[in-house]
Amino acid sequence: MTLKQLKAFLALARTLNYANASLELHLSQSALSLSIKSLEEELGGKLFNRNTRRVELSQEGKSLIPYAKKLLANWDEMENDVKQRFKLNRGTLSIASMPFVTHAILPEVIHEFLSLHPNLNFSIHDIPNETIIEKVQDGIFELGICFEPDLTEGLEFKALFEEDFLALLPKNHPLAACSSITWQQLFSNPFITLQRPSIVRHLIEQNCLRNHMTLDLKIECHQISSLSSFVALGIGVSAIPRHFAKHIDLQQNILLELPAETIHKTVGIIYKKNFEISHISEQFIESLTKHKF
Description:
This protein has eleven helices and twelve strands. It is an alpha/beta fold. The two termini are 53 Å apart.
């Protein structure tokens, strides 16, 4: 059953006249007759009773009308929806993102994107770095923003920016007057960091091991914004991704440089290789790559 057949059926059912239905559809009467005949053959019986004087709907033809109308309405709705999506006038983009990127990066990027495409919607999923990679590979999310994977088999990775870490100390800390400190100096203090699983936590712990030190973990929490509040009260120190720096209250805390080469990771956007991504995703990737981080 084709769209052309359904349109021919409904036009003839409405007019009960081949000439009028042909004019309405801009078809020849022979083409209209052929569409009706092929539809009847597919369905297995007559939809119209015809004689030399008139055309009448059969009982089966009458029963088909509501279904045909519903199918055409759904088709029109689908066609309009897809056209609107190609025009970026409709649609929701689901993105998996590391929490610190969601907080520090995405609001500005999405604000820029929505200023150009105000009718689109976003669904942001804050999940750990490794989970992002896994869920993009499994096709659960079309796009993910994460640190560059060690293995990118089956994935495309587009670099967005380089990330290193800053030391976060309370303003009254003895080292607060320094312009920079070493990781060893930082790790010699009670430490506040994120709960597992967290790529930020993992990178800090790996660096602690490299420096042959033991992390004196005082508090672990879910959000960087939360740990900065604990640091401000002098409970401990921490290290945060540089791009989160503008969200730290510098009335209570101080940020110091750390050796950048120790923890230096590329953040980017991933999606499945050889997978045709949606038009919305294409446009968002383009916006991300043009953004000045």
